């Protein structure tokens, strides 16, 4: 079997010192362009891949990024991981995930311990955990690089990626009213979360602007799970006068509404229009396909990873100030014009 090429082989064939090769591998800027190009050519020709442990020791870092979350939506987590991993593979980093219990009294302490124990260079934090001021403060105090993904502007722009849920949900409310609907209900997410409040308030405020009030019996709080979507849908659809539209805070709960409507013999969208939020894989595959708001989760996660790596490597980049993304409306089969 051929011997695996080493950094010594690269240095010898490039005619430079091992230290210079190490600088190129680790992205240092104090190497001339011609020398860098010559070394990179030898690396490519040899198929040389630096040992991650040795590389990390040389650069005083581990080349590990962390992902902290407490979210029941597996499809959301999958999209986030795809976004982060696409950047990690390009930049030579690995990803370590850490599910936590956001409601635990020790969750901040546990998250900091996870980062230190795993020797992680930086961490991305997902909602609702990202909404914790205490966690952000603890990470700063321990000099840990972090970026929060959230629905509101909670931090310095370098440390956050924000989904403008309020603006997007306003677009959805206007669309539903444009179809002629006035009797509209909402299954909100947990009201302890900023994201749930942004969507509920944005939806309700836009309807009010359009002359439509949401009565208390048309607002019900879910848990952002499929099962809670089923429970909330039953509570809404057994009312003596059922709503013409149900908007659910996420696609998981909207799928629960679809199930209950099917069980009750309510035709979608002829008798009931349904809309969700996220545009996860489920939304385009249920029958009828779901009108929803597409949150660009993978792009958000990629941006978060780029920001973290820029912090780690002390590389100035315009992306550090690039923090706001706007979800957009996806119209499918689960909504239609109101019957006259």
Automatic annotation (TrEMBL):
Residues 6-53 form the HTH cro/C1-type domain. PROSITE patterns: HTH_CROC1, HTH_LACI_1, HTH_LACI_2. This is LacI family transcriptional regulator. GO terms for molecular function: DNA-binding transcription factor activity; transcription cis-regulatory region binding. Keywords: DNA-binding, Transcription, Transcription regulation. The keyword DNA-binding applies. The keyword DNA-binding applies. Residues 5-59 form the HTH lacI-type domain. InterPro entries: Cro/C1-type_HTH (IPR001387), HTH_LacI (IPR000843), LacI/GalR-like_sensor (IPR046335), Lambda_DNA-bd_dom_sf (IPR010982), Peripla_BP_I (IPR028082). It comes from the Bacteria.
């Amino acid at each position: 079997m051929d011997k695996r090429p080493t950094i010594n082989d690269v240095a010898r064939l490039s005619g430079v010192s091992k230290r210079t090769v190490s600088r190129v591998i680790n992205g240092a800027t104090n190497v001339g362009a011609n020398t860098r190009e010559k070394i990179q050519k030898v690396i490519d020709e040899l198929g040389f891949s630096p040992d991650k442990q040795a590389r990390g020791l040389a650069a005083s870092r581990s080349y590990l990024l962390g992902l902290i979350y407490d979210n029941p939506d597996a499809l959301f987590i999958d999209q986030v991981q795809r976004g982060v991993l696409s950047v990690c593979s390009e930049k030579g980093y690995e990803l370590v995930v850490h599910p936590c219990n956001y409601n635990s009294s020790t969750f901040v302490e546990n998250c900091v311990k996870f980062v230190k124990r795993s020797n992680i260079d930086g961490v991305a934090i997902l909602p609702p955990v990202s909404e914790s001021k205490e966690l952000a403060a603890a990470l700063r105090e321990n000099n840990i690089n972090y970026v929060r993904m959230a629905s509101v502007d909670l931090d310095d722009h370098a440390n956050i990626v924000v989904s403008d849920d309020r603006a997007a949900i306003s677009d959805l409310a206007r669309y539903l009213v444009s179809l002629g609907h006035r009797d509209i209900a909402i299954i909100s997410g947990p009201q302890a979360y900023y994201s749930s409040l942004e969507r509920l308030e944005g939806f309700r405020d836009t309807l009010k602007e359009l002359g439509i009030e949401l009565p208390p019996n048309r607002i019900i709080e879910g848990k952002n799970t499929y099962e809670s979507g089923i429970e909330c849908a039953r509570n809404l659809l057994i009312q003596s006068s059922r709503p013409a539209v149900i908007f659910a805070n996420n696609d998981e709960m909207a799928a629960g509404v679809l199930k209950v409507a099917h069980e009750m013999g309510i035709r979608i969208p002829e008798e009931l229009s349904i809309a969700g939020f996220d545009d996860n894989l489920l939304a385009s595959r249920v029958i009828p396909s779901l009108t929803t708001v597409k949150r660009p989760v993978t792009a958000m996660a990629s941006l978060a990873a780029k920001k973290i790596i820029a912090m780690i490597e002390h590389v100035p980049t315009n992306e550090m100030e690039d923090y706001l993304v706007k979800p957009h409306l996806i119209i499918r089969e689960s909504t239609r014009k109101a019957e006259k």
